[in-house]
Write a structure and sequence with these properties.
Number of strands: 11
Number of helices: 16
Largest sheet: 5 strands, mixed
Shape: elongated
Radius of gyration: 25 Å
Helix content: 40-55%
Distance between the termini: 29 Å
Structural class: alpha+beta
Strand order of the largest sheet: 3-9-5-6-4
């Protein structure tokens, strides 16, 4: 059975069961050091401005409205307890905000005098919920004693660092996945976007704006929740799996993509990855058209009567794009034929029972990943993979 998943832009994805229910329990036993630290808002603001306290890339915009931020500032001025924040120490000795970004930014905005959400002057709300002594006042309008109180107020931070495994941030991914203070369950690529900041994450953002990829995906605007970015990562990761098979029988896609992104997060690989994706997408768009990653809803032998489904198929996507990538990497010459002939070969592949099984059953089984790519490659290019 497959699950049709709607994206925020109403893109529909024909997602196999073993990808929908891919909630792996990591076999690694983490060795994590954690400690408490009381940090003043003065220190937190300075660290943030010095790029030593990092906001998660996931939170591109400040989301609290001015009344929410004002209530938090009011609590500080009243001397009420402030909830703890959760920080992760990164490999380069910086601190990544896992939980508490809205609180920290509210105080920073107030001290700086500008509200991030709309760049307006930040004065506390006029509402009666705010103490009359500082209601509707900007930071610089407060008495100096109150300004010092805000800056010197400490907030308890729980800081952790992963000691084992040493080569990946798997515990950080798990923690992001389990902490949900803002009421929205994070999707895997949203979490990776926080955990694996660096060259490969920037590359995924860049490639996701490829005009022809957007047409093949089916929406001109990148998805807010990054499902489209995850498929670009999937292409790279499963391509490597095809070239360098692993001994296990089946993979957790979520875990495999995590490890790939962590392992390849270095500048030296970026140019090659960029060229591979752009070249393969160019070929697919040129030779198969915008329905390339969709299945067929009719098995009519007359290709002109073929009806395509409206769903993006992940398994057709990876088998087709990886096949094209492998073909281009060989520097092979394409037989002289027009787009109609290549699409006809793709349709024939989609009707092939062994291929149907490989794209619909146990899709993260290594043998099925290999089979669907090899079968597609043979149908398209009439040669062995």
């Amino acid at each position: 059975m497959k699950n049709h998943i709607e994206t925020n832009e109403m893109q529909s994805i024909d997602l196999p069961d073993d990808e929908v229910y891919d909630d792996y329990s990591d076999d690694d036993l983490f060795k994590i050091s954690s400690w408490g630290a009381d940090l003043s808002f003065r220190e937190l603001i300075n660290r943030y401005d010095d790029n030593e306290l990092i906001k998660p890339e996931l939170q591109r915009n400040y989301v609290w409205d001015k009344s929410e931020a004002s209530r938090f500032i009011d609590s500080i001025l009243l001397g009420l307890p402030v909830p703890s924040v959760f920080l992760a120490k990164t490999k380069d000795e910086k601190l990544l905000i896992i939980d508490g970004y809205q609180r920290i930014m509210s105080v920073r905005d107030y001290v700086k005098g500008k509200f991030s959400k709309d760049n307006s002057v930040f004065k506390l709300s006029r509402t009666e919920k705010i103490h009359e002594k500082w209601r509707n006042k900007a930071f610089l309008e407060l008495e100096e004693e109150l300004q010092r109180k805000i800056r010197n107020t400490t907030i308890h931070a729980i800081v952790f660092t992963q000691q084992h495994p040493t080569n990946e941030d798997t515990s950080l991914f798990q923690i992001f996945e389990r902490i949900n203070s803002n009421g929205r369950t994070l999707l895997p690529q949203e979490i990776r976007n926080c955990v694996y900041q660096g060259p490969i994450n920037s590359l995924l953002f860049d490639l996701n704006n490829n005009e022809k990829w957007r047409k093949l995906w089916g929406n001109s605007r990148p998805e807010e929740r990054m499902r489209d970015m995850e498929y670009i990562l999937r292409f790279f990761a499963l391509s490597e799996l095809i070239s360098n098979p692993i001994t296990t029988n089946k993979i957790s896609l979520k875990k495999y993509l995590n490890k790939y992104m962590g392992t390849h997060n270095n500048e030296s690989e970026i140019k090659g990855l960029r060229n591979r994706f752009n070249s393969a997408i160019e070929f697919v768009h040129e030779n198969f058209g915008i329905n390339a990653f969709q299945n067929i809803s009719s098995l009519n032998d007359r290709i002109h009567n073929i009806q395509y489904t409206q769903q993006f198929s992940p398994t057709i996507f990876d088998s087709l794009l990886i096949s094209v990538d492998k073909f281009l990497s060989k520097g092979s010459n394409l037989p002289t034929e027009n787009k109609f002939e290549l699409e006809k070969k793709r349709i024939s592949c989609l009707k092939h029972q062994e291929y149907i099984n490989a794209i619909s059953k146990e899709t993260m089984k290594i043998s099925n990943i290999q089979n669907r790519v090899q079968i597609m490659y043979r149908f398209l290019f009439e040669q062995d993979f």
